[in-house]
């Protein structure tokens, strides 16, 4: 079973990473622009399914590997911290607006595939989800319940942002500023990950 402190730390970490711009969130926002909130809301189910598959596979892989390679979890935390630092720098300098592809309707299969291949899944499995989640079905269900409770509203938020941008309701939102603020959050998370290893 997840302790309250473990669940709280996991929830806050998951929320930060799920809020970050990335391939899945970009597709959700683009779907909102193209199709609106009501017609795109079902895509959060495809996102959830993709993450459940990918996180579970990565978690099982890491759990089995860590028995013979006890240095692997620490290495993964360092790699995750470096990846997030790189992502923060890239986001700061790119400061791109949300992609607004209007060439085709974004479907569940596209969202599922993008999510399965999303590097965030490896970060969740290797650094954010507790190792016990991949050793016990009860703990896995608890962790996934926390994850699901965060993913659905955050996914709908990204769709809403796209929908509001598409119909002109957010004329004063500057995407570059939003992205730079997000990059600061990513950088802080990266530092906290690496700092937790140094203590």
UniProtKB/TrEMBL annotation:
Keywords: Cell membrane, Membrane, Transmembrane, Transmembrane helix. GO terms for cellular component: plasma membrane. Its main location: membrane. Coiled coil: none annotated. GO terms for biological process: cysteine export across plasma membrane. It holds the Pfam family LysE. The chain crosses the membrane at residues 45-63, 75-95, 143-165, 177-198. GO terms for molecular function: amino acid transmembrane transporter activity. It is a multi-pass membrane protein. The keyword Transmembrane applies. It is found in: Cell membrane. InterPro entries: LeuE-type (IPR001123). PANTHER family: ARGININE EXPORTER PROTEIN ARGO (PTHR30086), ARGININE EXPORTER PROTEIN ARGO-RELATED (PTHR30086:SF20). This is LysE family translocator. It comes from Paraburkholderia dinghuensis. The lineage of its organism: Bacteria, Pseudomonadati, Pseudomonadota, Betaproteobacteria, Burkholderiales.
